[in-house]
Amino acid sequence: MKKILLVLLIFIALAKNDLVFGQVSIAPTTIFIDQNGIASVFITNPGDTPQEINVGFMFGYPGNDEQGNLTMMYSDSTRAKLFGIDERIRAFPRTFILAPQQQQTVRLQVRPDRSLAAGTYFTRVKITSNAQTANVEETVQEGVSTRVNFKFDQVIAAFQKVGAVTTGLEFEDVQIDQAEGVLRVVPAFKTIGNSPFIGSVMATLKNAKNETVAEQSQTVALYFSGKRAVELKLPENIASGDYSVILVYETRRSDIPSTDLVQSPPITKIIAVRIN
Q1: Nearest CA among 221, 228, 258 for reference residue 60
Q2: Where are the domains of the chain?
Q3: Of the candidates 84, 129, 128, 89, the residue with the CA atom closest to the CA atom of residue 108
Q4: Gene3D superfamilies annotated for this entry (predicted)?
Q5: 15, 58, 185, 251: least buried by Cβ within 10 Å?
């Protein structure tokens, strides 16, 4: 009997809340290792099919291209040696079967390294799920059996803070683009301190009368110096003229407790713009 194994679509999901895009849900979606080198992840199977789960690690972080677009960086071996914990972190259990409507607690443990300088170290936790293989294959026409296996990778960040941690931003040139009703602000930034800047940015567009005409908030994770675009949707029929864009960066997010985030005072950047 001929066997056909179809493996369809590997999804890598980065989410703000519980990850439920795949076949299992994950909480929390950002992991902070405690002072003892321990953290927990809760994996839940909300479906009706047992899931085979594998927990692995890979160094990576959100970066950007020259246009300020978000890109994930997974091949930076130099920074992996300096900041990565994927060689020191372990998961217990690492592989398991998760029954329908059940939850499994996965303990993460980071081996201590007393040689580390103060700062924040990190990796990505990759949780792979696929339906448990059936013992008996389904027979279809002409004696051909099929087995369809959907495999999902869900990836979340894990951080370990060592010693006194600080973060902040400094800004350099800012590029402004306007097209199709969107104002795109691309500041060049430099991260300062010894930790990534994890938080949010509020962008506000004000007219010459100091009236707010547009506002947009988004989360940011700025690990290393670069560019990161902030977009504002402009009101229809906005009048041409001189405006100001006010960017306020804060180390707070609705999905992460403030006690976990490395704190910084709010950072404000004001840019004069011309709307045509």
Answers
A1: 221
A2: 21-133+150-162, 167-275
A3: 89
A4: Immunoglobulins
A5: 58
The CB density around residue 230, as the number of other CB atoms within 10 Å, is: 22
Euclidean distance between CA atoms 231 and 210, whole angstroms = 20
Please tell me the CATH superfamily of domain 167-275, with its number.
Intracellular proteinase inhibitor BsuPI (2.60.40.2360)
* pLDDT for residue 132 is more than 50: yes
What are the tokens at 137?
A: 């294959």
Q: What are phi and psi of 186, to 5 degrees?
A: -125, 90
Residue with tokens 């567009």: 205
For residue 228, give Cα distances in angstroms to 66, 72, 101, 149.
9, 13, 40, 37
Which CATH topology does 21-133+150-162 take? Answer: Immunoglobulin-like (2.60.40)
> Maximum distance among all alpha carbons in the chain?
77
> pLDDT of 101-115, one tens digit each?
999 999 999 999 999
Instruction: Please state, in angstroms and rounded to a whole number, the distance separating the CA atoms of residues 200 and 264.
Output: 12
pTM of the complete model: 0.85
